[in-house]
Amino acid sequence: MPELPEVEALADFLREEAVGRSVTRVDAVAISALKTFQPPITDLVGRTVTAVGRHGKFLDLTMHVDGADDLHFVTHLARAGWLRWSTSLADKPPRPGKGPLALRVHLGDGVGFDLTEAGTQKRLAIYVVPDPALVPGVARLGPDPLGSDFTAERLAEILRAAGRSQLKGVLTDQARIAGIGNAYSDEILHAARLSPFKPANGLSEEDNAGLYAAIHGVLTDAAGRARGLAAKELKSEKKTNLAVHGRTGQPCPVCGDTVREVSFADSSLQYCPTCQTGGKPLADRRLSRLLK
């Protein structure tokens, strides 16, 4: 799943490649991905990309045409979505089918991008709105962890308000903190040496400081590594630099212990027992109690 660092890198890439180009055609292949219908997505044709921004894990392209208000092309790539940039898009409209292509945006001279989504669970979301705040997921976002208003004190307030909610869930709750998903929450908790099941309001001042430093450090480092990469290179870069997420059974790069996993209905988390849970492996979530 693309998270804050990858979406920020995509935004950087599009600022370089797409800003100043005008939309010549939009091919909507998977109508289910379109979450807004007024204004229609065809209203983007003739508009120029003037800015690219990010709201948590949402990508936001500002589209301008003289004599009309700006429109925002906002997309959430969800778990299996991606943006594929091309300098040789086929001129022939794609045929709807069972493939991964959801939407194609032509920016002239064969240049443009596809929004694709692998798998059977189609969660890719595309919005065309006059204001990104009209997108429900954007409107409910918590503070950006790389924003100037996200301080150690702000994090402490968020954790106190979360009560006994588990740290893993608090970090991935977009209404509390924007942009962190399954992978980077595992990485942050490993860097902070905290159990994913520890209650949010059970942290000491030292734990709070360590968690804040881990959030800022992990995300800043990941964003820095991703910066300047082409869109097609971002996925492999992310996987290569993860310490515990997706590395079940491999040695922890810090202590050498075996990385363990806890599985859920449709996802899983990874952690290091020595670094995070006092050497104790976590049992199935439904049967485990919190490791303090």
From TrEMBL:
Cite the Formamidopyrimidine-DNA glycosylase catalytic domain residue spans from the record.
2-98
The chemistry this enzyme catalyses reads:
Hydrolysis of DNA containing ring-opened 7-methylguanine residues, releasing 2,6-diamino-4-hydroxy-5-(N-methyl)formamidopyrimidine
What the entry lists under PANTHER family is as follows: FORMAMIDOPYRIMIDINE-DNA GLYCOSYLASE (PTHR22993)
Q: Does the keyword Oxidoreductase apply?
A: no
What organism does the UniProt record list as the source?
Answer: Actinopolymorpha pittospori
| Family of this protein | Belongs to the FPG family.
**Superkingdom assignment:** Bacteria
Q: What is its EC number?
A: 3.2.2.23, 4.2.99.18
Task: State the needed cofactors, names only.
Answer: Zn(2+)
What SMART domains does UniProt report for this protein, alphabetically?
A: Fapy_DNA_glyco (SM00898), H2TH (SM01232)
The terms under GO molecular function for this entry are:
8-oxo-7,8-dihydroguanine DNA N-glycosylase activity; class I DNA-(apurinic or apyrimidinic site) endonuclease activity; damaged DNA binding; zinc ion binding
The alphabetical list of record keywords is: DNA damage, DNA repair, DNA-binding, Glycosidase, Hydrolase, Lyase, Metal-binding, Multifunctional enzyme, Zinc, Zinc-finger
Q: Name one GO biological process term.
A: base-excision repair
Q: What is this protein called?
A: Formamidopyrimidine-DNA glycosylase
According to the entry, every stretch annotated as the FPG-type domain falls at 243-277
